[in-house]
Amino acid sequence: MALEKERVCVTGAGGFIGSWTVKLLLSKDYFVHGTVREPRDEKNAHLYQLEKASKNLKLFKADLLDYDSLYSAIVGCSGVFHVATPVPYTDVQNPEVGMIEPAVKGTLNVLKACAEAKVKRVVVVSSVAAVVYNPSWPKGRVLDETCWSDKEHCRTNKRWGWYAYSKTVAEREALEYGKTNGLDVVTICPGYVFGPVLQSTMNTSSWILVNLMKGPESDENQVRMIVDVRNVAEALILLYEKPEAEGRYICTAYGCKGQELVDKLKNLYPHYTYPKFFTEGEEDKVLTSEKLQKLGWSFRPLEETLTDSVESYKKAGILN
After folding, report:
1. Which of 83, 119, 130, 278 could bridge across to 114 with cysteines, CB 3.0–4.6 Å?
2. How far apart are CA 164 and CA 314, in angstroms?
3. CB-based contact 45:70 (threshold 8 Å)
4. Average pLDDT of the residues in 28-49
5. What does the alpha-carbon distance between residue 297 and residue 234 come to, in Å, rounded to a whole number?
6. Mean predicted confidence (pLDDT) in 40-67
7. What is the set of domains in the chain, with CATH numbers?
8. Backbone phi, then psi, for 31, in 5-degree steps?
């Protein structure tokens, strides 16, 4: 009798990164449990249309703050990809409730469920926001996995501070929980994630690209660390499948200044309205993904990512 396919769980399965992770896992013959807020919501219809989904995908109604719902989705799985997290596009009125609690308490709920269900390994999606906000890091030195955002510094950053704070605290707690409870936890810190969308609703990082093409008067000419969503999904599965993976991993492919990014987009799509001038933003940060590359990770050309992104926005009717 053939052995049953390995079962894994993806939290936030209907989101941008979650959808691509589910798609790639299904293509590799995993049986996937996906957590979503409402399995029959039209927003999750794209998941049922993925190849092999009819046989190998089961969606669970779950909430990060509801432990029992998470445990129901995780029990029986050998691996978990914790992707779900709130990402702000507009100001959050109450960041403690709207962002920090789901990010931190939600992550701990997932980890507790994983420990109880005796999961083999958990891969937790963090962000470069948990890396780059560190004023004491030596100026000009490339940022690696030993650099952590300073929590108090994050609190004073009006733009992305609460998001950075929530990701920093959640990632630190995840790694600490793993050590304390004997749970194998690996974390990944992607940069700006671009690439084609599978889901029907737009995510924050995709809106950043769309807005650049819809002509804001100006934009900050600071370095954005960019990575393709498909390469993030590949990295997640690589970190799950490679026994030697441990600790945290930065996941970025290109450091691109605002002006350079717009020039590339203009070259590919000259007919859109782009920013007319650029202002200098915060000090540029350069990160390295060398640790992840040593595991065998590679990434697509930036032009391919940008083209596939824009074509998917046009197909979705977000860009003309």
Report:
1. 119
2. 31
3. no
4. 93
5. 8
6. 94
7. 7-191+227-252+286-293 (3.40.50.720)
8. -95, 125
Highest mean pLDDT among 74-88, 172-186, 214-228: 172-186
Q: What is the pLDDT of residue 2?
A: 39
Please list the active-site residues.
167
The proportion of the chain whose per-residue pLDDT surpasses 70, expressed as a percent, equals: 94
Question: What DSSP assignment string belongs to 10-53?
Answer: EETTTSHHHHHHHHHHHHTT-EEEEEES-TTSGGGHHHHTSTTH
Residue 41 has pLDDT above 80, yes or no: yes
Q: What is the pLDDT of residue 94?
A: 66
CA distance 110 to 306: 33
91-107, pLDDT tens digit by residue?
556 666 667 877 889 99
* Cα 309 from Cα 59, distance rounded (Å): 26
The rounded Cα 198 to chain-centroid distance in angstroms is 14
pLDDT of res. 1: 35
CA angle 301, 307, 308 (to 5 degrees): 90
CA angle 224, 311, 274 (to 5 degrees): 50
What pLDDT score does 90 carry? 44
Mean pLDDT of 171-185: 97
Confidence band, pLDDT 50/70/90 cuts, at residue 218: confident
CA dihedral 149, 147, 127, 257 (to 10 degrees): 90
CB 154 within 8 A of CB 162: yes
Task: Report yes or no: 46 and 199 within 8 Å, Cβ to Cβ.
Answer: yes
Report the C-alpha gap between 257 and 295 in whole angstroms.
28
Position 128: which residue type? Answer: V
pTM over 0.85: yes
**H-helix or E-strand spanning residue 115:** helix 106-116
Question: In the chain, which ranges are E strands?
Answer: 7-11, 31-36, 57-61, 79-82, 121-125, 185-190, 192-194, 218-220, 223-228, 247-251, 254-257, 277-279
